[in-house]
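At your convenience, could you comment on the folded chain following this short note?
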Amino acid sequence: MIASNHSSFLDPQLVGISCTDEIHFLARDTLFHFKPFGWLLSQLNTHPVQRGKGNLGTIKMTMELVRSGKKVVIFPEGKRSSDGTLQPGQLGIGMLVQRTGCRIVPVYTHGTFEVWNNQRKLPKLFGHTACIFGTPIEYSDSAQDKKEAQAEIVNTIMEKIAALRQWYLDGAKGSPP
């Protein structure tokens, strides 16, 4: 599973072109309402998610993809940041990791908010962006309460994304954390 910060319309594309393997995305279902765009998203391995709902079918499909070795990009914050800062992660990714036992690759996307944030209708033609992949996080099952374990997973992911951000801002010396 690939877990990235989310501050721009550009984040999925940047993560997508930065991966050498085939990847799958989860996106809000309203993006699929305009049929030609929905068809295009489907062709790009994008799967709809209803906001604020249980999405049992999407959860099962995501778990099947992960268990079969496919890479799935998830934005733990759940939605784009309105100001470009990291937002708290949501428990959904913690539950998916807990149920599949998969590794998580933390990712930090830089500069995408300035290029195409939610206030802009179109992206800027010029801007500096970067996509930094961190050291994979191994999940280890613990005997603690399920909700506590999920929160711990989410906190670890968000801490790793924040560490990648700081590493990049400090000059990207050595290997990414």
The chain has one domain: 2-169. The radius of gyration is 16 Å.
